[in-house]
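Hi R.,

Here's the chain you asked about this morning:
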Amino acid sequence: MSDPSNTPPNASSTATATVAACVTDDLPPVRIDHLCYPHILDLVLAYAPRPALLALRRTCRAYRDRADALLAEHVVLDLVSDSSGYDYVRVKSADGGRLPCLAGQNVLFNDTRSANMLGRCAPVLKSTRVVDVRGRMTADVLCPLSRAMPGTTVLRLDGGNDDAMASCPLRTPTVVVFSSLLPARRPRTLLPRLPTIPAHVRRLIVNVAYTNGDPTLPASFIAPYGKADTLDDFVIVFTKLAMTSRVPKLWSCESSDTLGVLHHIIHAMGRHILVKKYTFVGLNELDPVCLGLPGAEPDEVRKQTVAAVDEQLRGLAQQFHLDDEGMEDVRPELCFLSRGEYCDLVGKGQFAVDTAG
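And here is the predicted structure, written out as tokens:
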């Protein structure tokens, strides 16, 4: 197979996109010059699956560059140790496949090869918009890569690595955290640890996985988070998992806290009065027992949640001597959506970024 880099730069000038526009076999195919209708080619590339992009990038240098940019829009950074204990970062596409433009290259650090490899990666990574960070990477490790990805707008972190939000040099306006409330031997181990939220983050999406039927679930909760006064929207996405094994009930799993799982989030609203909006996604599928409301319908859950927030704000008003107008200034918007409604609101592409771990 020929090397795409040896393809003449002007090869695309003679290429045409063929569209079979015939309604019957009697009509000849219509050939459309893609240079005259670039928007058609843009749509084809936007919806092209990974195998099609890999095939297209072999046709000419122009298509190779466009395909590489699309393949690198969402990348995964994995911290890997080799047999000698040396740590390096492996850059992959969102589906776990390799990026052909980086084939055979791992981005290394603290040696001369790192700068050379990063220089070759930079033209491709400048199109990156979404970055998943896997493993506990330090700022020293991420800084060189962050300079190569100046257009990144979404940072995605797993629950064990959420403290990277504050130290990560990728200063993205949106951060997605994947956490969980899973079966465990002690209720306290079910608590997801939400990080301090840096000032540049405007939108935080926290995915909380849980298992209906887990007897420890009613005693678990979403832990309070750090400073969040710059958030425009704090989104909590509840994701129901299937029960894979029976967990014995060895202790009392009943919570006396108001609204159970949501208690600490609601309590924190009194401290983070500048957060403009809280969006609860999939709360309708959570067993109402976990909210201390056994048998409650979704409408009742929403009503009780709003009432709990009002109660929290009334305490705030007394503390700071706020009148009704002052109360309205600090009252956040509360939005309750099913997963389907949230998908319709943000679109399928953004929904996958916000919720698919």
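One quick note: The longest helix spans residues 298-320.

Cheers,
M.
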